[in-house]
Amino acid sequence: MTVDGEHKTLSPETVPLGVGPPTREEMLVYYPAKFTWKQLKTFVNSGDLGLLKRDKKLQKRYDAWAAGIKAKYGSMANYLLNYRLQWGRQDTISLLPSSLKESPEEATTDRSGEVPEEIIDPKVPRRLPPLPPDAPPYFKADMPPELLSITMNDWPYSVPPEVEHSLIWSRVPILPPDLPPPSESRISARLHQDGLWGFTGSESPPPSPSTLPESLGALSEWGITMDKLIRSPRGTDEEEREIRKYGEEIENFVRRRWDEHEWQTAWFVNPPRLQSVPELTHIHVFARRKTPKEIARTQINTI
Questions:
Q1: What is the DSSP code string of 171-235?
Q2: Which of the residues 26, 117, 157, 242 could staple to 22 if both were Cys, CB 3.0 to 4.6 A apart?
Q3: For residues 192 and 181, what is the distance between their CA atoms, to the nearest angstrom?
Q4: Could you give the C-alpha distances from 205 to 143, 208, 243, in angstroms and in order?
Q5: What does the DSSP 8-state code read for residue 55?
Q6: CA 89, 92, 93: angle at the middle one, nearest 5?
Q7: How many other CB atoms are found less than 10 A from the CB of residue 115?
Q8: Residue 89 and residue 106: Cα distance in Å, rounded?
C-alpha cells in the first residue's frame, strides 16, 4: 500500500493503535472507509446532513479524547481557541496533512507575538480576536486569511482514502446577521433545519436525492431508514434559488482554494442541530483530487 508517496506494508502488526487524534496509517488500518465518494455526495445532497457519519469505533475514541480535552480546557471551544485554531496561518498541527499546496499568502507559519501554549492557563476562557474595522459582516469569497483558520478535520467522517476532510473556521458568521428568525421566514427555517451544501469541480450534477435509497445500506449499522430523515420538502423553484444564493460566497471561496481543474469537492454547513461546537462557525469540505485522466478530460472540455 502507498501512503503519502511511500510504499508501506500496513497492518495491525506494523501500525500501533494509539489514543487521541489518529494518524493516516491508523485510519487506513483500523477505520477503513464505510462510504464511497458517490455515497458521500448522495448523503450531502439528500437534504439531511445528519446522514454523514464518523466510524463508530473512531467515534468512541473521539469521545474518550474529548472528555480529557474538556477536563483540561474546560470546553471544546476553549481548546480550539487556546490551541488548535491558527488564524491566518497554515495548519501545522494535524496528523492528517493535506496534499493541497498553500498559496504564498496562506502559507505563513509566523507565530511571533503569540503567547506560548505551555504558559497559558488552558481553562481561562479565550475569545475570538477582535475583528478589524473593515471585516465583512459575514462570510465572503474573498475573506482575508487572518479571519480564517483552515484545518484538516482531526476526526474525519468515514471518507475514502482519496478524500480529504477539511474545516474552514471563520471569525465572522457564515450567514448574513440580518437573516430573519426561523419563525418569520420559511427560508430561514429551512437553513436552520437543513443547513447549506454545494459541489464544485464535477463534470456531472450531484446524485439526485431520489437515489438515496440505493445508498442507505451503507448506513445500516446506524439504523438509518427513509422514515427517520430530517429534511425539508423541496420548495418552489424561486425558493430553491434563494436557498442556493446563501451558499454562493462559500462556493466561490471553495472554487478558489480547491481548483476545479484538479479537485472535486462537496462542501456543507451543518445546521444547529448537528453542530458539535456551535460557538465557532465553520464549513466542512470533502475534497477529492482528480485522477490524471479526469484532469486531462477537464482540460479538453475547457478548450
A1: SS-SS-TTPPPGGG-HHHHHHHHH-EEEEES-SSPPPPGGGGGGTGGGGGGGT--GGG---PPP-
A2: 26
A3: 9
A4: 27, 8, 17
A5: -
A6: 125
A7: 9
A8: 6
Separation of alpha carbons 179 and 161, rounded Å: 38
Q: What would the grid cell of residue 300 be?
A: 479538453
φ/ψ region of 79 (left if φ > 0, alpha if ψ in -120 to 50, else beta) reads alpha
Task: Identify each DSSP E strand in 13-123 by its residue range.
Answer: none
Take residue 129 and report the three cell numbers written for it: 480576536
CA distance 64 to 116: 26
Task: Please write the tens of the pLDDT for every residue from 202-213.
Answer: 999 999 999 999
Location of C-alpha cell 485554531: 85
Task: Output the nine-digit C-alpha cell for 204.
Answer: 456531472
Chain segment 131-175, per-residue pLDDT in tens? 999 999 999 999 999 999 999 999 999 999 999 999 999 999 999
Reported as type and span, the H/E element at residue 287 is strand 282-289
196-200 sheet: strands from edge to edge: 148-152, 163-170, 282-289, 263-269, 196-200
